[in-house]
Amino acid sequence: MQHAVGAPLPPSHRPAGQGHGPQDAGWAQSASQPPGPPPHHPAPPVPPMPTPPAQPAHPAAPVPPVPVPPVPAPPAPAPPVAGHPQTGHPTPQPPVEQPGTTGHIQLPPGGPVPLPHPPADPAMADASQAAVAVLLIGPAGAGKTTVARYWADRRRVPTAHISLDDVREWVRSGFANPQSGWNENSEAQYRLARRTCGFAARNFLANGISCILDDAVFPDRPVVGLGGWKRHVGPGLLPVVVLPGLEIVLERNAARSGNRRLSDEEVARIHGRMAGWYGSGLPIIDNSTYDVETTARMLDEVVARSIASPPTF
Fold first, then answer.
1. What is the biggest distance separating any 2 CA atoms in the chain, rounded to whole angstroms?
2. In terms of Cα–Cα distance, which of 285, 284, 197 is closest to 233?
3. pTM of the complete model beyond 0.70
4. CB–CB of 50/22 below 8 Å?
């Protein structure tokens, strides 16, 4: 078969399936024009070859190469920051927390609580504004936990209430209840709770927060009781005894519930041991006829006297 006009079209060098473009229009234009002689393009002039310089008869001494300083390697590129899937903006990364910090606030370490500074005039001592660590001692049913919470709520400076019974009951599985029998497990959990409360008091005082702790400390066990609290908290601990009459203690204990309610025999035994604080030199508040507000006000007076003249124990 022969074509009516011109020569056959040259084969296409495009990949299969490629769309038409400007080159396709050129091919179509060349196919519609009759063949003719190729256009004449004159060859460009050839420039003359440069003449090499003449070599001297006696070549000069070789020149030592100039040392080239090493080029520093480019810094490694930063890892790509993940962007938000919708906006494309970089996602903010959390700050790197340095050791010894909580969030962005540097906390001072809690050291042993020192003795409070007595005022120049003892009559001007204001216990409601002093940074102190108070240990409220008393038998079960003396109302020490209620008084401690009331006293801490109404101070003019930040004050924390640290209850030994609350910390001791943090142990849920394996809790050693003394009502089921006093043994080495209940003794160990009491000591652990006292040490935990002491560390908490030191941290609070180091960060400008006063604290009041409450515990049934016996005078006939100074190493475990008051001596242990002094080791855990520091020499600036201010102990105060709250000791109402036995009838009041029995009445208040009867209003309790759960594992904090003791038998009348146990309450009477603990109250009898607490009587040993008389004559110890520690301040004692008999709140048999006082309400909570009056007892807290008397506690302020006792703390003010203790700041002016710290008790020895």
1. 137
2. 197
3. no
4. no
Residue in the structure block whose two tokens are 């990364």: 93
Distances (CA, A) of 229 to 153, 176, 213, 235, 272: 23, 21, 10, 9, 22
Is the separation of the CB atoms in 296 and 150 below 8 Å? yes
CA torsion sign, 137 to 212 to 214 to 313? Answer: negative
| 261 in Cβ contact with 250 (< 8 Å) | no
d(Cα 234, Cα 112) in Å, to the nearest integer?
A: 4
Strands 237-242 and 133-137: parallel
Counting other chains too, the contacts that 189-195 makes at CB distance below 8 Å and 24 or more residues apart are: 190/164, 191/224, 191/228, 193/164, 193/167, 193/168, 194/164, 194/228, 194/229, 194/232, 195/228, 195/232
Half-sphere CA count of 178, side-chain side, radius 13 A: 14
Q: What are phi and psi of 211, to 5 degrees?
A: -155, 155
Whether CATH 3.90.1150.200 fits 130-308 = no
Give the pLDDT confidence of 154-182 residue by residue, as tens digits.
999 999 999 999 999 999 999 998 777 78
Percent of the chain at pLDDT exceeding 70: 61
Could you give the 3-state DSSP secondary structure of residue 264? helix
Residue 21: pLDDT band with limits 50, 70, 90? very low
What is the average pLDDT value for the chain, to the nearest integer? 77
Domain boundaries, the chain: 130-308
